[in-house]
Amino acid sequence: MATGKQITTLDNEEGQRLSVVGDTYRILISGKETEGKYAVIDMLVPPGGGPGPHAHKDMQEMFYVVDGEIEFKMESGPYTATKGSFITIPPGGEVHSFKNKSDTVAHLLCTVIPAGLDAFFQEIGKPVAADTFLSPPELGPEELEQLKATAEKYG
């Protein structure tokens, strides 16, 4: 990554790639690089992938669908997002989740304000190579409690 006073560049081979819940997330810019103001995460979600229901107390989360199709579930009802769709979830927003119900990989760009979700992913994720997907981990009661505690730490 090349950085300067105002411009940051990142080549396709750069950025930390992590397996999180079976998806592969690439941290494009982290909160460490933005003084915690925001983070941008490139998300590849395989068929059947996506996180379970959750909410962010003090974080705004925005998604742009680069390619594919993703079903968002929100308290207000489901929304099928396709290429070019944009979803924004305000701070203190409702419980939401998303799932790739198609048979191809979905590609999302996620921005969070302030940063924090990136650090959560760095703590719970496993480093992977580009275009690599790991199976979602099996979580027993003890692992779920640990995940919940880690999630609370990052809001």
From TrEMBL:
InterPro entries reported in the protein's UniProt record: Cupin_2, QDO-like, RmlC-like_jellyroll, RmlC_Cupin_sf
Alphabetized Pfam families for the sequence: Cupin_2 (PF07883)
Ranges for domain Cupin type-2: 43-111
Membrane-spanning ranges: none
Signal peptide region: none
Record protein name field: Cupin domain-containing protein
Organism, scientific name: Larkinella arboricola
